[in-house]
Amino acid sequence: MIPFTKAHACGNDFLIVETRHVAEAIQRETARRLCARNTGVGADGVEYFEWTGERSGRITLYNADGSIAEISGNGTRCVAAWMANTKGVPGGELLTIATEAGLRECSLLAARAPHFQIASRMGVPTVDERVVHLATGELVEGAVVATGNPHFVIFVEGAEFTEQGRAWKQVGEEICRHADFPDQTNVEFVRILNPDEIEIRIFERGVGPTASSGTGTCATSAASMALRGVHRKLTVHAPGGTQQVEWKDSASEILLTGPAELIARGESW
Fold first, then answer.
1. pLDDT value at position 111?
2. Which SS3 state, helix, strand or coil, does residue 194 take?
3. Angle 137-141-146 (CA atoms, 0-180°, nearest 5)?
4. Which of 57, 62, 230, 243 could form a disulfide with 31 if both were Cys (CB 3.0 to 4.6 A apart)?
5. How many Å apart are CA 242 and CA 193, to the nearest integer?
6. Per-residue pLDDT tens digits for 195-204
């Protein structure tokens, strides 16, 4: 039996499994099986976790399709909530988590299980404008953003998040698998509401449309700040909930703040 904890951050859900319970050779297939919505527990991904200290750990993230992702901002926050609950770490303390994208520091702003509020340092993003040629011949203008994992951010005007008359999910899927991105990419569509707020939709690599994304929230914020002149503190609305982002300048780490909630504990075959 495999013990797990299920958690979510703004509807982006993950299973947290200690690596000692699953041999490395079967972690990929186990993640695919556990994440299946109808025949498994159901999740966007599995965070395999190993303690490295009393308040530190290491994670490897497998997406629902069994692919490995460098990092998930929401997944990392879920792991931090689980760590705090497991070790009884109070609010105001700091946890450190090693990811495939580097070390992330998570500050517990509030810790009252099952609800947690966490601020995570998410590294220094880079933003570069790019044009992608679709199979239909259409050109999509956007920005390649690196937040420890890859993103392509598209600015839209309407509340339906369409791009050149096409549904955002359709365009997102094509760009995710586009030849310009041999390792695939996350795709976000962002609508600027005012200088302090943006709204996003997410097509996540290895998952598909998702309710939220921590790194996607950072990527869309960074692109909006760098290319559209919005304020350096933003509220970001996604279908699953709201997060806050602060990026003081292009040389600084970006700070992501949002909730995480522990949902359930269980065992799976």
1. 96
2. strand
3. 125
4. 62
5. 14
6. 999 999 999 9
- The gap from C-alpha 81 to its chain's centroid, in whole angstroms, comes to 15
161 Cβ contact list (under 8 Å, min separation 6): 168, 189, 191, 201
**pTM for this model (two decimals):** 0.96
* Amino acid found at 94: L
* DSSP category for residue 27: H
In three-state secondary structure terms, 177 is coil
Residue located via tokens 């009884």: 88
Angstrom distance (rounded) from CA 15 to CA 34: 8
DSSP string, 121-159: E----EEEEEEEE-TTS-EEEEEEEESSSEEEEEE--ST
- Please give the structure tokens belonging to residue 221: 């914020």
**Per-position b or e across 223-251, b if 16+ CB within 10 A of its CB:** bbbbbeebeeebbbbbebbebebbbeeee
Q: What burial class does residue 38 get, using C-beta atoms within 10 Å of its C-beta: 0-12 exposed, 13-18 middle, 19+ buried? A: exposed
Cα 103 from Cα 233, distance rounded (Å): 23
Q: In terms of Cα–Cα distance, which of 166, 268, 209 is closest to 11?
A: 209
Digit-coded pLDDT (tens) for 1-60: 999 999 999 999 999 999 999 999 999 999 999 999 999 999 999 999 999 999 999 999
* Backbone dihedral region for residue 212 (phi beyond 0: left; psi -120 to 50: alpha; all else: beta): beta
> What is d(CA 172, CA 89) in angstroms, rounded to the nearest whole number?
39
Structural domains of the chain ordered from first start: 2-121+258-268 (3.10.310.10), 126-251 (3.10.310.10)
What the block records as the tokens of 165 is 């008359």
Q: Can you read off the two tokens belonging to residue 39?
A: 């025949």
Alpha carbon of residue 221 to chain centroid:
13
